[in-house]
Task: structure prediction
Amino acid sequence: MISRYTRRVMDAIWKDQNKYQKWLDVELAVCEAWNELGEIPSQALNRIKEKSAFSIKRIKQIEKIVKHDVIAFLTSVSENVGKDSRFIHLGLTSYDVVDTAFSLLIKESLEKIQKDLVSLQEILKKEAIKYKKTIIVGRTHGVHAEPITFGVKILVWYEEIGRYLQRISNAIDVINYGRISGAVGTYGHLDPEVEIIALKKLGLKPARVSTQVLQRDRHAEVLSVLALLCSSLDKFAVEIRHLQKTEVLELEEPFTKGQKGSSAMPHKKNPVRAERISGLSRIVRSNLQAALENIPLWHERDISHSSVERIIFPDSFIITDFLIAEITDIIKDWKIHPERMMENLNLTQGLIFSQVLLIALIKKNVSREHAYHLIQRNSLKAWNNHLNFKELLLSDKEINKILSKKEIKDCFSFEPYLKRIDYIFDRVLSEKKLK
Result:
């Protein structure tokens, strides 16, 4: 399954191995910067780059004693490098490394999300075009309104994902910053050129001013994008769940060979994957609250945000990527029932054409208020007595004085609801011809 694969990829980004590798990347970039500024001999730099390594097992052993993860990491690296390790972490504080590496992790994760959203959008485009002219009843307040097409429903999602691609791009710009400016951000033991050189090597930009940390509004903005995205995926899932109700049954999420829906009822086919999307999206939304709480730190920094971020960022990115893969997999293989859509369109025996008749009367110089009264009178009679709306209108003497029987019958057509569909698709997809 797509979702299992993508979960492994995103999970790997947030594993200790990748985190410590990013820490080492930052330390080596700083060493290279110091070398360019003449503070670390080239021979020493070459030995550092050749010997630099860490052991997660050893880091954990050291951390149990020193109770400081960065010191434990540096000690593990130093044990491999030897005497040249005196040049590592020169002039730095822990969060020069941790925060800069954290930006790299978030950026890598956002780029993974971005790639997955492109794949989702491609599937949505394909499905939207496939069902461009497939008529389905539009529902407002959960009640039948007027006909729409299933393709337009999906086109709305396609356009929405396009906005998230822009938001992800903006989020990458927001987090594409590091800080290598020392204990409280004043470069007390650093040349600012070290920061400029090192961050350029890492593909990041220097924060124009920082304390001991990058300010957490950046991180909250990233998480807000994930929370918004998961809310939209939840919206897609809720629509799928509604349309899979037995009474509706216009589509079904994939039901694989051997799958079972209930321990008690063998007939059950439940939208469990869409429900999973709705459930897990709540976690990401709730994590945003924690990210907002991380913004007001004490003075130049405190550590209250650190423990929180170790949970909310890996969890939020892994969940978000999993949900993108789930919705993509569902849409790619869902089962659509156009014949059921048509049955549901006819469920109210023509009531969905009420506005067409209202406009037809208005065009005959009937006041809107009186036209509304005539149509609603027949609509309620049809609804309350389960009668055919068109037959009622054809037998209404007052309406027959205004509209001919042909004009009444012509109002019961799906064609008006299809005539602007190409226009909508052209405007969204910027294509002149869609198959």
About this structure: The first helix runs from residue 2 to 13. The two ends are 29 Å apart (CA to CA).
